[in-house]
Write a structure and sequence with these properties.
Blueprint lengths: L4 H23 L28 H26 L3 H28 L1 H21 L1
Helix pairs in contact: 1-2, 2-3, 3-4
Length: 135
Amino acid sequence: MKKRPGLITFSFLFLVASLFWAEVGAALPQGGDKLPGVKQFAATPVKLDKVKKEDIDKQILRAAIIAELDAVSFYEQLAGMTENEKLKTILLDVAKEEKTHVGEFQALLLRLDPEQKEELAHGEKEIEELINKQK
């Protein structure tokens, strides 16, 4: 069986996320399963064994985008909870880096999926039309 680079990449991202959440879980109060006031990460709706071979890389990129957006939300929520300005600065800087990662994954997705690129442009046009109607 030929290994797919995309599957290896997805597996690596899953491992990193799992290790991250293991660290978060270790820091939680005993018996707690959530940080107070912080929403949990979204479940990634990808079953790789059901994805067509020609679509696997696109699905990996979408899963990666979901993970990065969740990370942005997570770090921004934590920054909003702390009164420690140094910690807040670091958390917001990390959130900003995650936004860059979203952009990297999205740029590659748009190269691999012309329909996604077209629909993204269509969505932007619809927003412009709706905003202009309000003026």
